[in-house]
Amino acid sequence: MTRRYDVIVIGGGHNGLVHAAYLARAGLDVCVLEARPLVGGATVTEEIFPGFQYSVFSYVVSLMRPDIIRELDLPRHGLAILPLESTLTPLPDGDRLYRDADHHRTWREIARFSIRDAEAYDDYGRSLFYMARAVKYLLDIVPPDPARLAPGDISGMLRLGRHFLGLEPDQLHLLAKLMTMSSADFLEEWFETDVLKATLSASGIIGTFLGPRSPGTAYVLLHHYMGEIDGHFRAWGFAKGGTGAVARAIASAAREAGAEIRTDAPVARVLVQNGRTTGVALANGDELRAKVVSSSLDPRRTFLDLVDEGELPDEVVQGVRGYRFRGSSGKVNLALDAAPDFSCMPGHGPHLRGAVSISPSIDYLERAYDDARYGDFSREPYIDIVIPSAIDPAMAPPGKHVMSCFVQYAPYELREGTWDDKREAFGDTVIDTLARYAPNLKDIILHRQVVTPLDIERTTGLSQGNIFQGELTPSQLFFLRPVAGYAKYRTPVRGYYQCGSGTHPGGGIMGAPGKLAAGVVMGDLGRGKGRRGR
Amino acid sequence: MLLETPFHPRTAPLCHSRRWRNWSGYASALTYEPGHEYEYYAVRSGAGLFDISPLRKYEIAGADAAALVDRVVTRNALECPVGRVLYTPWCDEAGKMIDDGTVQRLGEDTFRVTSADPCLRWFQDCALGMDAAVRDITRELAALALQGPTSREILERVVTGADVAALPFFGLTGGSIGAAPVTVTRTGYTGDLGYEIWVRPENAVGVWDALAEVGRGYGLAPAGLDALDVARIEAGLLLKDVDYVSTWTALIESRKSSPYEAGLGWAVQPQPGRDFVGSRALAREAAAPSEWGFAGLEVEWPHIEKRFAAVGLPPLMAGRASREAVPIYAGGKQVGYVTSSTFSPILKKYIALATVRREFTRPGHRVKFELTVEFVRHTVPARVVKTPFFDPARKRG
Ligand SMILES: Cc1cc2nc3c(=O)[nH]c(=O)nc-3n(C[C@H](O)[C@H](O)[C@H](O)COP(=O)(O)OP(=O)(O)OC[C@H]3O[C@@H](n4cnc5c(N)ncnc54)[C@H](O)[C@@H]3O)c2cc1C
């Protein structure tokens, strides 16, 4: 007799783990099946080079929902988030823009370019605070379906309407702009300094196959602003031990609550009988039974790979086929013999504990995008750098460093050749670009790991290497994520649910999809804690 | 003009914030950087380096040194072996606290005592008729606290002539840093793995440099009093004149605290035949407990957030530790007051040290914490919990 679980969770990424933890805490018998030897998915830290801890994919934390941290008591399970306090943007002429927690210094620094901008900076921060406060509401609810007339949907839409109509008119206008504009245009309303606009707009292109001048990127910018640390928006942090420590803490909480976590256990198929799931078949042929199966994989895998298309209505199959991944990001992770020395800010200062952004101008970013539009990786890419070892000494041996470089654009579909052929050339391009700003870089590299979109896909299963399990553009958000009619974590197959970043509220180390989906599953199973959105 | 500690030549240029506090007449950095956040995290993730030279220090020597210390403090000092340190309060005859500090036993007949405020006259008066000399060595001894998970690795690489790795919690050893003789104690005010280094003033700068140099690879940061305040509340450690008032400055009886009332009952160690200052009063109190006691509180953060969100604000309490006294209620009546509180960045909780009616000291009790939001008073639920709030295994391990 095979063991029968209440719930099987496919994928041990952070969302699958959050999902499992909540269900296990509700007393359900839960098993997580993870294909890789370790949990975390896109949130892993591995010792790729001896003595050096690489956060291979995701590298900074902000979106992780505070209620999840509290309810799962993640600090007790080892989660500590260290502050990331500054952003340095080096410029090709040797100048720089440096912003940090010192309000007055940041003001002076921006004022070197434009006093008007320095003054607008606070106004901008305030406006985004209002926006984040307004949209934050959405992060904690199951999206109501405007096309259905179920009581839950109607009351949900009403609540939503009331929430947004409660905004001041100018805030409502701003929100409309955010949902539709490009990040470059949006920023234009405040700033004239190119490097400032470029660096701020960069968070609007992350994980998206769009340039800063493409409409839709303003929302992505807001998505990166909504993170909260200790109740304050916009704060980005660094998980002690790397982002993998986030997944490990959640896994520990899930295990403590009674969940079983199996690694090296890739799922091949979701078993369906008479429109209802009965369990899963592993790649090794084993079958496991469960009342409920929740997939934390992206929509393409959840709907098209794991389930027979015949089990799904055509419009769902079409919808998922049309769902955009378009991976556009890569990473270069480095082990360094010493600290990188930036010519615009020499020496071993506090700037090394912050982010370094290679985003000197909007044109620079737009040109980087242009290359990608025609199927090449950017010759001069946007790079978002952190040096975890400068924040957390445990990440590298004393005096040595790890450096994480998030790179755009690296289009999944290349015009010619394959990523396997171009991997090292891509790595070289990134290093060459960086070396222009940190001339000692090439001499101090002990090891480098180049991660292309193909590598992301191969390792984590993220289709086309899209970091968010699908782009965060308005047509793929809220009640449209991943497809209309199935944004409430259910699928057309009874007992089969979705709980990954491909569902509302989307990607990033956030945990919200996992938790919200758990609420829906519990509600359907009649387990008390069921949440809005029936 | 505030005095400069022997480390001032190093701390002054590092103090970019130029925020100094008067600590016993010395300029003491509140933060080095504009905010204390990084310095706080250095203590919990790497190592924080604090200049604690302004502490008052006394040397007690002579054939009756042990007997004198044992007469003064509430803990049983005769049982403190050489090479050990005790944390202890000391009281007046009425059993009310005067001060608190550490007692280091350097030799059979030599002790060093630290205190927050001057105590020479008291120690000398207590020594009447004993063969024990008490000297104020505050200015003869500079001190650093090196606190945090990497502090041991740093010290192991810097200290010679001592086995730092083998030093137990509250242990003491002599050694050298470069050519400078130092005393290293495994003590601190952060509740983390940590050490304090005691050195003559002329060698102070050299010791700082050696630690800073090696510490670089271990996440060492100079840290100021703002960071210390958050860490010590997480550790559940009291601050004189904040969490209790010295019997010497209290002016009125109700402001005074006994060690029992301050949560330091464990440090009162009576023994048959042991006669220390306040022992009789404390014995009476042990038999008929005071109506006041100490409690650690965890204030429900979601309720704090909700109160602020109701007026459209983020929770404006996540910043520095607060020393504001805040009323505590239960059943509609005031049952005590918070003396120190802080958002704990590592625990993600709002925590507080409080003086409460004795019946509310037991962990699990539910009380209400007064919260003022936009000039309007509310109460939010809080729970009595055991202290230390944060107690990593490495502290003793
Ligand atoms: C390069 C990169 C950088 C990023 N940077 C950041 C950042 O700095 N900050 C941030 O907040 N977010 C970042 N992100 C986004 C964020 O990491 C992801 O959105 C998030 O981790 C996704 O979590 P998830 O649990 O939804 O899915 P995943 O992490 O994708 O988890 C899915 C899991 O399923 C497993 N799996 C796949 N197929 C199977 C199968 N058939 N059977 C069993 N298991 C299977 C996978 O191994 C994986 O563990 C980044 C992502 C990438 C790729």
What does this structure look like?
The complex is a heterodimer of chains A (534) and B (397). Chain A has helices spanning 14-25, 66-71, 103-111, 115-139, 151-165, 169-180, 183-188, 194-202, 217-223, 244-256, 299-305, 314-322, 362-373, 388-391, 419-435, 441-444, 453-460, 512-524, and strands spanning 4-10, 30-33, 45-49, 52-55, 81-83, 87-90, 96-99, 228-229, 232-233, 237-239, 260-262, 267-273, 276-282, 287-295, 329-336, 355-358, 382-386, 401-408, 445-451, 496-498. Chain A is α/β, with parallel strands linked by helices and 534 residues long. Chain A folds into 3 domains: 4-43 and 58-82 and 240-324 and 465-524, FAD/NAD(P)-binding domain (3-Layer(bba) Sandwich); 124-236, no CATH class; 326-463. In chain A, the strands form 5 sheets. In chain A, strands 1, 2, 11, 12, 13, 14 and 20 form a 7-stranded mixed β-sheet that branches. The longest helix of chain A is centred in the first third of the chain and has 25 residues, at 115-139. Chain B has 9 helices and 20 strands. Chain B has helices at 8-14, 37-45, 65-72, 120-126, 151-158, 204-215, 225-234, 279-287, 301-310, and strands at residues 19-23, 26-31, 47-51, 56-61, 85-91, 97-107, 110-115, 133-136, 142-147, 159-160, 172-177, 180-185, 194-199, 220-222, 292-299, 326-330, 333-344, 349-357, 366-373, 376-385. Chain B has a 7-stranded mixed β-sheet. A 6-stranded antiparallel β-barrel of chain B has the order 15-18-17-16-19-20. Chain A binds chain B through residues 66-67, 69-70, 75, 80, 82-83, 85, 100-102, 105, 129, 133, 230-233, 240, 348, 350, 353, 391-394, 397-400, and chain B through 33-35, 37-38, 41, 44-46, 150, 216-219, 301-302, 305, 308, 312, 314-315, 318, 343, 345-348.
